[in-house]
Design goal:
The chain has helices at about 10-20, 40, 60-65, 95-105, 120-140, 150-160, 195-200, 205-210, 260, 270-275, 280-290, 315-335; strands at about 65, 80, 105-110, 140-145, 170-175, 220-225, 250-255. By secondary structure, the chain is α/β, with parallel strands linked by helices.
Length: about 350
Amino acid sequence: MRQARVKATMMAVVITMATLSLGASPAGADPTAFVDSDTESAGYAPVDRPGPALEVPAAKLAASVECTASATRATREVALFVPGTTLTPDEFAWNWFNALDDLGFPYCAVTLPDNAMTDAQVSAEYVVYAIRHVNRISGRKVDILGHSQGGTEPRFALRFWPDLRQMVDEYIAFGATNHGSPLIHALCPPALGCAPALHQQLPNSSYIKAMNSRQETFPGISYTNIYTRTDEFVQPNLDDTGTSSLQGGGGRITNVAIQDVCPTDLAGEHIAIGTYDPVAYALALDALTHDGPANPVRIAPSTCSRTFMPGVNPVTFATNLAALDATIARELALHPRVQREPAAKPYVFAD
């Protein structure tokens, strides 16, 4: 049974130890703080104001995107993968990329600067470039798949670069910190600080407020937010009012927990949901292969009895997961820390 699967990752261990040692509590965890009021949104840029010029050098942006050969003049929409905090597209190499290779689906991935630990506003420029690039070479709309912070970068890009909205068909996120997570306080003790991108994923950070200002979704895009109620990193996520879920704005939305499909599933955790969880995969693939967002009703009950998503090799699973955990632990331990989040870019505000 999936409930018996060993699910403790280095991320879970690091967070648990930090929480215990710091006495951290989910301060600011009030879900009502996730709702952006009209008064707060009024200070942000209109949703239809053209986006700013990209500040990252063009050569760096171009080097950040890698695609399968089939992404050029593609015969179907291309999947664009955006990694989470501390990670690179390698997190998808032993699972999703294998699965899409077997299906014959074209895909691309974008490498964010400093393993997505630096200013998320800078990382968003890489996603802006990636969406434009993939749309241009494929001649088709783009299907975005992002894990954790990788779910916020595309939304920040869509919010402040409106030309992207006509280029995107599907937005699929796994355990996204769309409204921040109070558990990140455990990684950001006042005496030490933390990486810029972690500051920006705290509830009510300037980055989170700007990303969610005025409206959270846009017409013409289908949004599938996949989360787990047992996420040890991204909380609160007990229902569709939690941090990962999106509400209103114009896009078609499915906010779905893996427990909505498999009610007794207690094995889902933060790393698994973006890398090897079979229910998360089934929901994402449903969105990729149907018009509109995922529909949990279409997921076969047999999915609940599986241990891994397609593409994962059971023989090499432990080694692959250990390498992922090592990367997470290294970045959390060694990345330079700052005392506060980077200042919001001028373009996020109304004139």
